[in-house]
Design a protein that fits this description.
The protein is an alpha/beta fold. The chain contains six helices and eight strands, in the order βββαββααβαβαβα. Belongs to the small GTPase superfamily. Rab family.
Length: 219
């Protein structure tokens, strides 16, 4: 039975979330290429003049995945203050923890031309994992892959780390667009598949409960 609240309709037996919408945090330090990556996801273009302009708090991107229209709410999170302060009451940590409550995906962004940014996300990972659900999909994302002459993190080293952690790894360039579309499509595909599995499980669970005699629920 459906219940109406104004223009909103809720089905009590259905999970209370938008079936084809996901929240993805883009985590990394300022200057690591987070904003350029998100702009590439959104507009499929790069304009250097726009890199100093702030993005909205949430950037919505839309893709066709598994025959459905899927929306992703991308939110950039600053990592440097979080990493440099061990106080659990640190405001940066509190801010990130608040946004981790309902997150579905996590993009850990590092600059391939900066060893420090790679070490930073690796050091922050244990704390971040304590804030998120176990089923959140995490991906390591190297940016500025077009700057090969300035590279400080080799793909081999990054791949070893990603394999040890069990994460996907993409080296991207917002300037050329390399691997940007592949990245967003892969994470949305994984999230869509996982949500479909959850819905199927809940549906089967409901069927089992409905098939049981009502006396089975009497203490």
């Amino acid at each position: 039975m459906e219940v109406s609240y104004g223009d909103m309709v809720i089905f009590p037996r259905e999970p209370q979330y938008a079936a084809n919408r996901f929240k993805i945090l883009v985590v990394g330090r300022k200057g690591s290429g987070r904003s350029a990556l998100v702009r590439r996801f959104k507009h499929n273009e790069f304009h250097e003049i726009m890199e100093d302009l702030p993005l909205p708090e949430i950037t919505v991107v839309v893709r066709a995945v598994r025959g459905d229209i899927v929306k992703a709410d991308l939110q950039i999170m600053e990592l440097s203050n979080f990493v440099t302060n061990d106080d659990p009451s640190n405001l940066a940590k509190v801010h990130i923890a608040k946004h981790c409550l309902d997150v579905n995906g996590l993009l850990l962004v590092y600059d391939t031309t900066s060893q420090e940014t790679f070490e930073e996300i690796c050091n922050a990972l244990p704390s971040l994992q304590r804030m998120i659900a176990p089923d959140v999909d995490i991906c390591l994302v190297g940016t500025k892959a077009d700057l090969s002459d300035a590279r400080e993190i080799s793909f081999v080293d990054a791949e070893k780390k990603s394999q040890a952690l069990g994460f996907s790894l993409f080296e991207t360039s917002a300037v050329t667009g390399i691997n940007c579309e592949e990245l967003i499509l892969e994470i949305l595909d994984k999230l869509s598949e996982r949500r479909a599995e959850v819905r199927e499980y809940l549906t089967e669970k409901d069927k089992v409960c409905e098939s049981l005699p009502s006396s089975d629920f009497i203490p």
